[in-house]
User: What shape does this take?
Amino acid sequence: MANKADLIVGVQWGDEGKGKIVDLLAQEYDYVARYQGGHNAGHTIVIDGKKYVLHLIPSGVLNPKAVNIIGNGVVICPDEFIKEAAQFGDLRGRLYISKNAHLILDYHIALDQAAEAGLGDKKIGTTGRGIGPAYADKIARVGARLGDLYDQARLVDTILERYDRLGLNAPPKAEVASSVARWADRLLVFAADTTQMLWQALDDGKRTLLEGAQGTLLDIDHGAYPFVTSSNTIAGGACTGAGLAPKEIGKVIGIVKAYCTRVGNGPFATEQTNAIGDRLREKGEEFGASTGRARRCGWFDAPLAKFACRINGADELALMKLDVLDGFEEIKVCVDYDDGKPIYKSFKGWERVSKARSFDDLPKAAQSYAAAIEELTGVKITLISTGADRNDAIYR
Ligand code: GDP
Ligand code: IMO
Ligand code: MG
Assistant: This one.
């Protein structure tokens, strides 16, 4: 029987540590595929102290064996891709991009930034990378796709027409033509029918891992609109964003931080705008991997995590950054709401989890904390991460 594709999804507002887990698991997978989002994502991997941040390229790229796929649901900024790919040498044969993936063009970035500026204090706090406008053009059927680079002259005209329609000043035609030529030269070598590739992989019994970007609570449909990103970040997004049938999705692993963070604006009931929040930010180095912005920090929100587990069909959880809670005397978890206000349960802190190499090695208080998260979400924790490095992981 054909294999199913396993899936990694962020349970909170992104930055849970997806990159680390995808890199770790990629050692056992043949294919790693992104299915939504763009270079708004910042997935950090630390191997023997060396740090890599991936925005568009799947986090399987540091495993020489894995084939990486950027699916049709991803939006690609060509020059950002070229820049990011440059650090990995020749990726031909190890990376494929869907011909149907939409391109983020300069005017998308300009529109994103102008929209944010126009919103003033109501702004979403986007990454300013053109994600929303690129997806808007895709849905409005006026977008440009990777495959359009096969007809450069036509794409140049389409881009110039689009500037005109939008009432924006277009760059000189020669400049647009030169960009398009560069993109065609550097990107088309990776162009493929990635849906067919994934079907073939599954039919051949290959192991495939789908790498979600952002997090469940930023989902365009299921997050706190309009404080969301412009794609379906939940597990279901992998079906449309990679071209897989729902029944082809296998194990769903939710990545959950031991506390909560959020970059950008929007509701965050358990946020701690006080010394606790500052301490989480400092210890957890909670500064955006993409934009460098300080992340808002707060306690774990169990009702939201439970919602996320349900909507993604999470089979198991990876509990991340437990070490950041080291040394707290009291750790709080929101277990319910009363009229929108969090009701907290207190947990006893612990000294240090980072030395532990097995679940039983963990301080008893840390074990109880993990057990409480399992109970509150109804999902088993199968991995606990106790540091940024690839090796700082406890399997259960
Ligand atoms: P992603 O977007 O979900 O891939 O997460 P990011 O890479 O944006 O943010 C997670 C940050 O936490 C990165 O800097 C990681 O290197 C780091 N990290 C991951 N797991 C752990 C952990 O268990 N402990 C600590 N202290 N840092 C971690
Ligand atoms: P990873 O994959 C955290 C947030 C932005 C903003 C909102 C909309 O690293 O977890 P956008 O630029 O997407 O239109 O911004 O979504 N956001 C993220 N927050 N992690 C991310 O990705 C994010 N990608 C977008 O901060 O609030
Ligand atoms: Mg990130």
Summary: The pocket of 6-O-phosphoryl inosine monophosphate (ligand 2) is lined by residues 10, 13-15, 40-43, 124-127, 129, 131-132, 213-215, 218, 229-230, 263-264, 289 (CB under 6 Å). The first strand starts at residue 5 and ends at 10. The chain has two domains: 5-96+192-395, 102-191. The longest helix spans residues 152-166.
